[in-house]
């Protein structure tokens, strides 16, 4: 009996020992890996949680190729002036936008990349958001937008709250396209209505030359802008409900001269004129007439705040200077006026093909007191056949209209091929010298330009 018991116990111990040895040779099952990057659905698609935080981040951007053709000559420096007049007054050295070597079609192409970072965190005060978009071009990198949003506040660089609707134009044409800039704003969200007040970087635009003298007479006026003592203030109201959006906004800008009028200085006295102000107003609507068709209409008016209009010029034969204000020899600050109207129709022909038809018309009015600087034909040897004309860099009034179309084809999600063609025509109130050689004078009132652009963009 004892022998049997000993055999059983020995066998059991052997089996346990063998089992332990076999188990030690088997691979150990590892714990499942932890998924540190988790999808965040609180703010829409494309967001994920930054590991170890409750902040959601979306990374996006695009890579873009563009080729562009225009009959304007993109390599021409539109800001080259020659304000001198020879003593004999028979040969004028005028500003020439294009000489004979550039009277041909112009073509260029370039690439651009964009990186967009959108970080959001839910707090007891609402969403804390920071956004940055960086443009990378050949040889340059720039921050296009970068701002913080929290509890109704927006601090940083972004587009102005003055503009209600973005531009459909890739290149050329004219639209209310205002560059982004630093600002501090507060927005009250009241459901379908939002109210915004914003202190933005000043968008002053001044012509800084002192004028042109012909036979001792000043026929052009300038404005030397002093450093701005305040930001531009913008107030905006926006209503959005379904397929309908309406936008109203106004802007206030400061106008300060940096010197005393030339006439007073020549007389041995004079003082710098006091500060005055300019303003701009805009209104616009956008609505869906059909599920596949959207209409947009917006207009703007300005007094002493020209840059808010986005009013362009053909800039092929000539480019007339524009300014918020001019300073006369008597010390008066004369403000310019202007208005513009933009309209577009966006129609989706198929889920992959959409087309936009757009147009614009606007006017710029130089102060009437300064539009008396016509050049006497006798001062240039009668080259104009007795017709008075206007020196290029003198205050001049003009109108500009533009018409164009853009087609977007999206063969697959994230890839868009766009073609944009537009025409711009500028009409000056007074004739403008474009070239003078000896007594042979070329002048015109009209200028025009065609622009065609091909864009291929991969967005992600």
From TrEMBL:
The keyword Signal applies. Consists of 16-stranded beta-barrel sheets, with large surface-exposed loops, that form a transmembrane pore at the center of each barrel. The pore is partially ocluded by a peptide loop that folds into the pore lumen. One of its GO terms (biological process) is monoatomic ion transport. Residues 1-23 form the signal peptide. This is Porin. InterPro entries: Porin_alphabac (IPR003684). Coiled coil: none annotated. It is found in: Cell outer membrane. The keyword DNA damage does not apply. GO terms for cellular component: cell outer membrane; pore complex. It holds the Pfam family Porin_2. GO terms for molecular function: porin activity.
């Amino acid at each position: 009996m004892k022998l049997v018991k000993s055999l059983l116990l020995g066998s059991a111990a052997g089996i346990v020992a063998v089992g332990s040895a076999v188990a030690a040779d088997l691979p150990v099952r590892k714990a499942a890996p932890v998924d540190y990057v988790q999808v965040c659905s609180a703010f829409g698609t494309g967001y994920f949680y930054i590991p170890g935080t409750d902040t959601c981040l979306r990374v996006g951007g695009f890579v873009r190729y563009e080729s562009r053709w225009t009959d304007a000559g993109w390599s021409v420096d539109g800001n080259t002036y020659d304000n001198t007049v020879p003593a004999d007054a028979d040969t004028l050295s005028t500003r020439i936008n294009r000489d004979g070597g550039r009277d041909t079609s112009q073509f260029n192409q370039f690439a651009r990349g964009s990186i967009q970072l959108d970080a959001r965190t839910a707090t007891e005060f609402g969403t804390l958001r920071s956004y940055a978009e960086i443009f990378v071009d050949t040889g340059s990198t720039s921050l296009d937008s970068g701002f913080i949003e929290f509890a109704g506040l927006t601090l940083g660089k972004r587009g102005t709250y003055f503009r209600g609707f973005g531009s459909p134009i890739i290149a050329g044409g004219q639209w209310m396209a205002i560059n982004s800039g630093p600002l501090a704003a507060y927005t009250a969200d009241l459901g379908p209505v939002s109210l915004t007040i914003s202190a933005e970087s000043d968008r002053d635009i001044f012509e800084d030359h002192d004028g042109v003298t012909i036979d001792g007479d000043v026929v052009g006026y300038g404005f030397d802008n002093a450093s701005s003592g305040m930001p531009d203030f913008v107030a905006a109201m926006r209503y959005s409900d379904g397929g309908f959006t309406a936008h109203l906004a106004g802007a206030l800008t400061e106008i300060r001269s940096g010197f005393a009028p030339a006439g007073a200085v020549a007389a041995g006295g004079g003082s710098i004129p006091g500060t005055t102000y300019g303003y701009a107003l805009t209104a616009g609507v956008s609505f869906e007439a059909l599920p596949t068709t959207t209409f947009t209409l917006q207009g703007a008016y300005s007094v002493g705040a020209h840059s808010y209009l986005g009013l362009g010029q053909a800039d092929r034969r000539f480019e007339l200077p524009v300014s918020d204000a001019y300073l006369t020899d008597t010390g008066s600050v004369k403000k310019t006026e202007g208005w513009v109207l933009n309209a577009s129709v966006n129609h989706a022909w198929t889920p992959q093909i959409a087309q936009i038809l757009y147009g614009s018309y606007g006017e710029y009015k130089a102060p009437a007191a300064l539009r008396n600087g016509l050049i006497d034909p006798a001062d240039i040897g009668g080259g104009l056949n007795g017709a008075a004309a206007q020196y290029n860099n003198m205050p001049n009034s003009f109108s500009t209209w533009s018409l164009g179309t853009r087609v977007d084809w999206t063969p697959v999600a994230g890839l868009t091929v766009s073609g944009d063609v537009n025409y711009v025509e500028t009409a000056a109130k007074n004739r403008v010298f474009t070239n003078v050689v000896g007594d042979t004078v070329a002048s015109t009132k009209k200028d025009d330009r065609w622009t065609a652009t091909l864009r291929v963009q991969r967005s992600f």
